[in-house]
Write a structure and sequence with these properties.
alpha/beta, DNA polymerase, domain 1, 14 helices, binds S-adenosylmethionine, 7-stranded mixed sheet
Length: 331
């Protein structure tokens, strides 16, 4: 979950000052906000009148905020209701693109919206579709085979009891449609109400949400497409909220900012140029005062890179996370 909104639903865009201090040297151009949400990042960037924003979000519920932005900022603000993996397919003319920004995850407002069914406190039919999806959590739970269910829970949720939970789901679904509350009950029955810091259902629900929204493929394709879209000298910046996302973003920036050979197997293979310059090798984390004001921000990590050349191929990147994207392609 992302930490943009605190428990009273007050809006707190996470790591905002840190992000702004990174991108402000490039001010005077267009920034793509790939995760518009309530517009916290966009608003701050638009404070500078020389900046334009192209905003993207897959969730139609943000359209109200987006239309207010349109009224206020006129031609300086454009919004597209699409998935960020499609950012290179949007039919627009971008003048002077300077930065592409991601604030991954979902806001607390979205998590609390019972129609989306992201929370294990919800009741009723499983859903988890965040917008522009091919299938729902209900489709997964009612039709995916036992082996792939277990794989999903293990790889996307690091769920220790993945096999037993998958077995119980397959058994129970022969008698009835498994609703949100039934899934919680199945997980509780397998885990025997163990006392851990996190809720018994957290990992399975995270795994299902990642699968339904194809979050891994979305992120990998969006990073690659961002690289091809941004000119040399532009910035790609990403705020992550869980370890799978961060592993992907870390590899993307680290691997492609190091010297690499064009082939691992040929000693005479040519050395490839670096694709990014990294100013910070380590991620930027929220300050103690931000965590105090907005406790969920504690899991946020900000990584960024400055593009240094146009010739990069991302086969290693795709290969590295193929085991994860393969599961998303199962449905
Ligand atoms: C954490 S919120 C962003 C909050 C925003 N930075 C702000 O300050 O209000 C993440 C947003 O990204 C959107 N999102 C998540 N995955 C997406 C995807 N693959 N494509 C487009 N939007 C996505 C969610 O719908 C959500 O509104």
């Amino acid at each position: 979950m992302n930490a943009t909104i605190n428990l009273e639903n007050k809006h707190f865009p996470v790591l905002l000052n840190e992000l702004i201090s990174i991108i402000s040297p490039l001010y005077g151009g267009t920034f793509i906000d790939c995760t518009f949400g309530q517009g916290g990042y966009s608003e701050k960037i638009l404070e500078n009148e020389k900046n334009n924003i192209i905003a993207i979000d897959r969730d139609r519920d943000v359209l109200t905020s987006a239309s207010k932005f349109r009224q206020r900022y006129k031609r300086r603000f454009k919004f597209y209701n699409t998935k960020f993996s499609q950012l290179n397919n949007i039919n627009f003319k971008i003048n002077n693109l300077k930065g592409i920004i991601f604030d991954l995850g979902y806001s607390l407002g979205q998590i609390k919206n019972s129609q989306k069914g992201l929370s294990f406190f919800d009741k009723g039919k499983l859903n988890m579709k965040m917008g522009i999806n091919d299938f729902s959590a209900n489709d997964v739970i009612s039709s995916m085979d036992e082996n792939n269910l277990a794989k999903t829970f293990k790889l996307f949720g690091d769920e220790r009891y993945s096999k037993r939970i998958a077995r119980e789901i397959v058994k129970k679904r022969q008698d009835k449609i498994i609703k949100t509350e039934d899934l919680v009950q199945i997980i509780d029955s397998v885990k025997k109400y163990q006392k851990t810091k996190i809720h018994n259902s957290t990992k399975v629900f995270q795994a299902l949400r990642i699968l339904v929204n194809k979050e891994i493929s979305e992120l990998i394709n969006a990073l690659i497409n961002s690289f091809h879209l941004i000119p040399v000298g532009g910035i790609i910046a990403v705020v992550t909220f869980h370890s799978i996302e961060d592993k992907i973003v870390k590899f993307f920036f680290k691997h492609y900012s190091e010297q690499r050979n064009s082939s691992r197997y040929l000693p005479e293979a040519k050395v490839l140029e670096k694709c990014f310059q990294l100013i910070n090798k380590k991620p930027i984390l929220p300050s103690l005062s931000e965590i105090k004001q907005n406790p969920p921000s504690r899991s946020a990590k900000l990584r960024y890179g400055i593009k240094t050349n146009n010739n990069c191929d991302f086969n290693d990147f795709r290969e590295k996370f193929k085991n994860l994207t393969d599961i998303e392609d199962l449905r």
